[in-house]
Amino acid sequence: MAEKRLGQILIEKDIISPSHLRVALDRQKAQKGKYKYIGEILIDMGIPQEKINKTLDIYQKRKPIGQIFLDLGIISPGQLQKALERQSQFAKMAVRKPLGRLLVEMGFTTYNGYMDALSKHFNLAIVSLRGFFPSSSLQRAVGKAYARKHQIVVLEDYSTGIKLALAEPDPLVMDELRRSFPPQRRVEFCLADRLEIDYCLKEI
């Protein structure tokens, strides 16, 4: 039996309709330049980010970040293999080293390349905080100490939802944040440059 694809699962769970999937597939085929996965396109179409990501995790459909680096043409298979071997060496010393950071440290990619891969792995848009004026009152929505510890900047806080910028996604922190708000409030995450987040947090 053929393994079910993400789009088929989303239809079966009534998260999207067959017409949503057809439109997303058509958009994917029509793309020029930067490659986008179906999940990303569906989020662009207005399907809630949380529902896409939850389905990816429950059904183990999230693409490994190493494969994403390959899909984007950022690294070669040989470079990925070297990084995985280095990561395994760290693991034997009980040191957890995320693959993306390791690829940057080994000089196989840039920080921007790493951000691009993270964006696709977690289905999070990348935003610029240049010219953004952080608000002390907005930060209270997550708590200033918590925000500094996990490098979070609150971009928007409105009655039906909240939008947060992260320096680096952590599934445990993201889940904790979702559970800290009422179910009817939509929690939207995005990525921002670590230095820009640091600057914003210092200004608050």
Strands, helices and their partners?
Layout: H1 6-12, H2 18-30, H3 38-44, H4 49-58, H5 65-71, H6 77-92, H7 99-105, H8 111-122, E1 125-126, H9 136-139, H10 144-150, E2 152-158, E3 161-166, H11 171-179, E4 186-191, H12 194-203
Parallel strand pairs: 1-4, 3-4
Antiparallel strand pairs: 2-3
Helix pairs in contact: 7-8
What would your notes on this structure say?
The chain is α/β, with parallel strands linked by helices and 204 residues long. The chain has 3 domains: 6-62, no CATH class; 65-122, no CATH class; 126-203, Type II secretion system, protein E, N-terminal domain (GMP Synthetase, Chain A, domain 3, 2-Layer Sandwich). Helix content is 53%, strand content 10%. The protein contains 12 helices and 4 strands, in the order H-H-H-H-H-H-H-H-E-H-H-E-E-H-E-H. Strands 1-4-3-2 form a 4-stranded mixed β-sheet. Helix 7 (99-105) packs antiparallel against helix 8. It is globular. The N and C termini lie far apart (55 Å).
As a whole number of angstroms, the C-alpha radius of gyration is 18 Å
Termini Cα gap: 55 Å
Task: Trace the largest sheet across and list its strands.
Answer: 1-4-3-2
| Number of β-strand runs | 4
What percentage of the residues does DSSP assign to strands (E)? 5-15%
Would you state the CATH class of the largest domain? Alpha Beta
Shape annotation: globular
Give the number of helices. Answer: 12
CATH topology of the largest domain: GMP Synthetase, Chain A, domain 3
CATH superfamily annotation of the largest domain: Type II secretion system, protein E, N-terminal domain
The run of helices and strands is: HHHHHHHHEHHEEHEH
Count of domain modules? 3
Provide mean pLDDT, rounded: 94
- Helix fraction, binned, reads 40-55%
Q: Main beta sheet: strand number and arrangement?
A: 4 strands, mixed
The CATH architecture assignment of the largest domain turns out to be: 2-Layer Sandwich
Question: Which consecutive residue ranges, at least 5 long each, have pLDDT under 50?
Answer: none
Class derived from helix and strand content? alpha/beta
